[in-house]
Amino acid sequence: MIKTEQLSKSYGQFVAAEDISFEVQPGEVFGLLGPNGAGKSTTINCISGLLKPSLGEVSINGYSVLSEAVKAKQSLGLVPQDLAIYEDLTGQENLNFWGQAYGLSGRQLKDRMSTVLQQVGLESRAADLVSTYSGGMKRRLNFACAILHEPRALLLDEPTVGVDPQSREHLLSAVENLKSTGTAVLYTTHYMEEAERLCDRLAIIDHGKIIASGTLAELRSHMGEKDLITLQGDFSQVSEQVLSDFEVIEWQDDSIRFMAADAASLLSDILSRFGKGQVKQTAVQQANLESLFIKLTGRELRD
Ligand SMILES: Nc1ncnc2c1ncn2[C@@H]1O[C@H](COP(=O)(O)OP(=O)(O)OP(=O)(O)O)[C@@H](O)[C@H]1O
């Protein structure tokens, strides 16, 4: 339903997205997970037609976004990172505006408005001006506007950034609901927990490139059932030989990261290899998307 083939986008000499290929099937949530600046919005904007790719192909429901834009966009909904709603209109008026822009009218538009308001939990505030909404409520309305016309493919660009837990829950359940009705969803986020909850398959993106992709289970298996251990302290005088029997990912004067199977049982042996007072803090993370990202890049997802 959503397909990119070797999509690249450059700004002058700077390559913001490079060789991005994936497909999202109906009823599937595909996640693009990566830190700020990784290239997620660039990819989404090329798919929605807001940006023209420098190279590669994008299609929606079999129609090329470049050469058959009108047909491609008929099946597409976009929830942009920047809000696309009017503050000086009510929630209802915003929906009415967007509904008409999508060609809906009369009874059909009324029914859809009431369905989406209920899906995002805004029925009781629909008659209020958007300027009186909380940030999370605005994000929910932004989402509602994008799904009014029942798109078969939906692009969500970090829809939960800065929202309160209640709004986040409304948004995540609305995505789950769309998935169950067969919508193909592309979901970008830098929140690992959201990717783990929602996504059937994922691509991890960093510096404009996909560095790993697959189902959650496939991605976890990259970690080889190993835990990620982070030590903080003073390691400026410590030889890397101390951990030569482990896979060290990052070694700095004040922190060390390495992988170990069953880290908890090895911890006292590991700590005994360091001098008194050298290790000030210890953290053990089981295999998850965050630890995989650190393994692949040496950096944290939220950098
Ligand atoms: N118009 C532009 N001109 C030059 N560089 C740009 C432009 N738009 C984006 N970039 C750069 O491209 C890179 C990717 O940006 P993009 O917005 O796609 O990242 P992102 O993963 O969506 O992160 P964020 O969540 O912070 O938006 C960044 O380094 C950004 O500064």
Describe this structure in words.
This protein has 303 residues and is of the alpha/beta class. It is 33% helix and 29% strand. The chain contains 10 helices and 14 strands. The chain has helices spanning 40-48, 69-74, 91-101, 106-119, 135-147, 165-180, 192-198, 216-221, 263-272, 289-297; strands spanning 2-11, 14-24, 29-33, 55-60, 63-64, 76-79, 153-157, 184-189, 201-206, 209-215, 227-233, 247-251, 255-260, 279-285. The chain has a 6-stranded mixed beta sheet, sandwiched between helices. A 4-stranded antiparallel beta sheet has the order 2-1-4-5. A 4-stranded antiparallel beta sheet has the order 12-13-11-14. A hairpin with a 2-residue loop joins β4 and β5 (63-64). α3 (91-101) packs parallel to α5, α4 crosses α5 and α5 (135-147) packs parallel to α6 (165-180). The longest helix has 16 residues, at 165-180. The chain is elongated and about 75 Å long. It starts with a strand and ends in a 6-residue tail after the last helix. Adenosine-5'-triphosphate is lined by residues 11, 14, 16, 34, 36-42, 158. Residues 11, 14, 16, 34, 36-42, 158 line the site of adenosine-5'-triphosphate.
